[in-house]
Design a protein that fits this description.
Length: about 325
Amino acid sequence: SIQKDNGEETAEEKNLITIGFSQLGAESDWRSANTVSMQSAFVPEEGYNLIYKNGQQKQVNQITAIRTFIQQEVDYIVLAPVTESGWDSVLGEARDAGIPVILVDRRVDVPDKNLYSCWVGSDFELEGRKMAAWIQKYTETIGMKADELHIVNIQGTIGSTAQIGRTRGLANAARENGWDLMAEVTGDFTETKGREVMSGLLKRFDNINVVYCENDNEAIGAIDAIEAAGKKAGPNIKNGEIMVVSFDGVNKEALDYAKEGKISCIAECNPLHGPRVKALVEMLVEGMKPDKFNYVDEKLFSSIDDVTEVEIDGVVYPVQDIGE
Ligand code: GYE
């Protein structure tokens, strides 16, 4: 076969399937785990050549990456989109080039659903509803009245599916329960921004008793800010502690915080999508039509044993005890 100058065969010569993967960034531990999962699933030994591009949390970088993949004539494009809007033209270009697009993690908001083959990820609004149900049950158990809850929401990247769903889950529950949801401010899913935003909120409000962080990295930053302000992060809100809850359950520090009670509850968000995306690609290769939307099952984690499960629309979700 034809050899490249360095003597190695090209992906094409090896009959590998080339996947262009536009990852949105490297903002969190969840994201790093997700990238590793993708990189370990799509390896040459399994018949794949993965081209990975990090979008640095900017949609324009992702659009450029997709256009490059189209020029390179990759076989499939996998897109983890940073936010939902603004994908119509570039996805149209991929379709015109005959390259199927698979979405992973977050979604795109396009009127023409045929612009992508399928999606795999989490039900982010359900995650938010589960967390709100946990807050409701726990605070009731310790005898707090609904109007005594003073909540701030440190949101994820505005306009991302994870932010939209988690914010909606809390906001609806706050309205239904009569909770005082005092502020919604973005922390961009990062530890640095979580710290900065929380320290600002503590200056603005002196009665915060629940901090809803839309991921663990923000929670770690927020806890730093709480401690720097001379307060304690914990579930004992009747005695002046500030209860922090968050999402993901991927990083070791956050799980340790959950064991110590600094984070009271974590809604699991599973990042290990590599094998799932690979299964979808394999179906497309075989000429099969995968389900359009593929959801992953997820639990809650907590070391507080007062609440063992939550129920939503008749479905029971267990709270996994993560011990001391
Ligand atoms: O929860 C957060 C990350 O989209 C589910 O993005 C993902 C979220 C995840 O930065 O940590």
